[in-house]
Specification:
The protein is mainly alpha-helical. It has 19 helices and 13 strands. The protein has helices at 2-12, 32-35, 38-46, 91-107, 134-144, 149-161, 177-193, 197-220, 236-246, 249-273, 297-300, 309-326, 340-359, 363-384, 414-418, 426-435, 469-481, 485-502, 522-538; strands at 109-114, 117-122, 132-133, 172-173, 275-276, 279-280, 337-338, 385-386, 391-392, 395-398, 401-404, 507-508, 515-516. The strands form six sheets. Strands 7-10-11 form a three-stranded antiparallel β-sheet. α3 (38-46) packs across α8 and α10 packs across α13 (340-359). It starts with a helix and ends in a 5-residue tail after the last helix. The relative contact order is 0.15.
């Protein structure tokens, strides 16, 4: 088992300091018995090690709930002609795809005993990822609201129930291993009784894997809360707004009054604990949700030409997490990034939280949150916009200094979604032209998570060039918000065609549409429903 061997080697070897090159693989793992629990556990925690690559405001006019009225006219189309792409799906094929998406969400419905009662949520993939993640559940709620708003509300309640006393919402909440493992033991007994050795082996592997995971998570996470000590993209406020709009008026008002206090505590925690020079900072790449993006390579000290998945995870990311935990989850010298993406999400969601405050009967707090959003907007433009390159760029702590990170990714386009640029701002056209350039991002199945022109681009790599539906969701919203309706529609149509071709997978090849990793991935399913609803609204005049 090469992965198990790699885990033994990694944790038997002194951690490389931040910025140091990856060490060569050791030949003699000295502490194998102590480390045997790492392999399968890390596979789930990292969403890595199987298949190609490795894992795990006011809403816009087209996606999300449409605001009343439109502003301005659509600008002329920019960029080069798009790459050849499959035709848009017809109504019957789209309807069939939505039925498949709902079946995935139903299959991944999950519940287990939690500290605060019964946790009811949608697992990203019940077989592979049986736990709850922050931004996964936010996407799940956005999709579920279209046909089961009560379940969408429960999805967010379950997430908020895992909040720490200081206000932090963890990126991952995991159940007691015995609760989930009991299902595998039951399946094992049934398979053995029916003499199905293949099914018995799968059940045994699942039970042992969950036990390993529980041991690993106990070491890496907060054992008392059974949750991680890191967060994820803070998009839960806008998810709450969208869910409330799908509820009956009385239920919506009650829901917003219920969720406002924990939401406020979370965004106050970000303001209190995670702002550096006015910008939100993350202390591990997992917090971005884009775990292995090459934009982080300089911070981890990785040469993209020598990137190798397993060693990257074990020699860089795992030590960085342990160092962060060792600080009491307060700061880290191993990894720190002020990301365009995280600050865009934070800005958009401060505006969403302001709306929740007003709807919950707290107008003064809504005004205060809007003021915080204005301050954040100014710092994003001042610190992250590079006028010489005509691009937004992340800042990473490299050699003890905040340094622009040069890798070109679509996360630099998220200010379009986040309301950071006004209509008519010349920077909008610059960004859209780059986004729709077939030599960079406008592939047959856009949008790759790394520009095709980057040496780190890998069409099968985990966040290193593959297409993810959630990125397309944000970018389609941004295009629509700025009047690029044709480009937004094309992106949504290509996204649905990609899922029809590749399946309800975790991520996709931007050239072929082939799907990778999880086969029944819930946020893909949820966003298929959301994109279909957005396209249906476009087809109705006046909506």
């Amino acid at each position: 088992m090469p992965i198990l061997l790699a885990a033994w080697v990694a944790l038997s070897t002194p951690s490389a300091p931040a910025g140091a090159p990856l060490p060569p693989p050791a030949r003699d793992p000295l502490e194998a018995p102590r480390l045997a629990h790492i392999s399968l556990a890390l596979a789930s925690a990292e969403r890595a090690f199987d298949g190609a690559g490795s894992r795990r405001g006011e809403p816009a006019a087209v996606l999300g709930s449409p605001p009343p009225g439109r502003r301005g006219g659509a600008p002329a189309k920019v960029g080069r002609p798009p790459s050849p792409a499959p035709a848009a799906l017809g109504a019957a094929r789209r309807a069939a795809l939505v039925r498949r998406a709902k079946a995935v969400l139903e299959a991944n419905r999950e519940s287990f005993p939690a500290t605060t009662g019964e946790a009811r949520f949608t697992a990203p993939d019940k077989e592979r990822y049986p736990y709850q993640w922050l931004w996964d559940s936010s996407f799940h709620a956005i999709g579920l609201r279209h046909y089961d708003p009560a379940r969408a509300a429960d999805e967010l309640r379950s997430l908020l129930a895992a909040q720490w006393p200081n206000g932090m919402i963890p990126n991952m909440v995991h159940a007691r291993a015995d609760v989930l493992a009991s299902r595998h033991w039951k399946a094992l007994h049934e398979a053995a009784r029916e003499r199905r050795p293949g099914a018995a082996l799968r059940a045994l592997r699942g039970a042992v894997s969950l036990w390993f995971q529980d041991k690993l998570f106990g070491a890496l996470h907060n054992a008392a809360t059974r949750s991680s000590g890191i967060t994820q993209p803070p998009i839960v406020a806008e998810a709450a707004v969208e869910v409330s709009r799908a509820l009956a008026p009385g239920a919506a008002a009650a829901f917003l009054r219920e969720v406002y206090p924990p939401l406020r505590a979370y965004y106050d925690w970000i303001d209190r604990e995670r702002l550096r020079d006015g910008l939100m900072v993350i202390f591990h790449s997992w917090e971005s949700g884009t775990d292995n993006s090459p934009r982080f390579d300089p911070v981890y000290g990785v040469d993209p030409r020598r990137y190798e998945e397993t060693r990257y995870n074990l020699f860089k990311k795992l030590p960085a997490l342990l160092a962060f935990k060792g600080s009491g989850w307060r700061s880290s010298s191993r990894f720190a990034v002020k990301g365009v993406d995280m600050n865009s999400y934070y800005h958009k969601n401060l505006l969403a939280l302001a709306r929740v405050a007003r709807d919950a009967g707290r107008p003064d707090e809504g005004a205060e949150l809007e003021g915080r959003a204005r301050e954040l907007k100014g710092e994003i433009i001042r610190q992250l916009w590079d006028p010489a390159r005509g691009a937004f760029r992340d800042l990473g702590l490299v050699g003890g200094r905040w340094t622009p990170l040069e890798t070109e990714t679509p996360f630099g386009f998220l200010p379009l979604y986040a309301g950071l640029l006004d209509r008519g701002d010349p920077r909008v056209a610059i960004l859209v032209e780059r986004l729709t350039d077939p030599a960079k991002f406008w592939t047959a199945f856009p949008v790759p998570t790394v520009a095709l022109s980057e040496r780190s681009f890998d069409p099968k790599g985990y966040w290193r060039g593959t297409t993810w539906l959630n990125v397309n969701y944000f970018l389609a919203r941004g295009l629509a918000e700025h009047g690029y309706a044709a480009e937004s529609r094309e992106l949504m149509e290509r996204s649905l065609a990609m899922v029809e071709r590749g399946g309800m997978r975790e991520y996709f090849n931007p050239r072929t549409g082939e799907g990778y990793r999880a086969r029944q991935f819930s946020w893909t399913a949820a966003l298929v429903i959301e994109l279909d609803e957005a396209l249906r609204r476009l087809a109705v005049p006046g909506r």
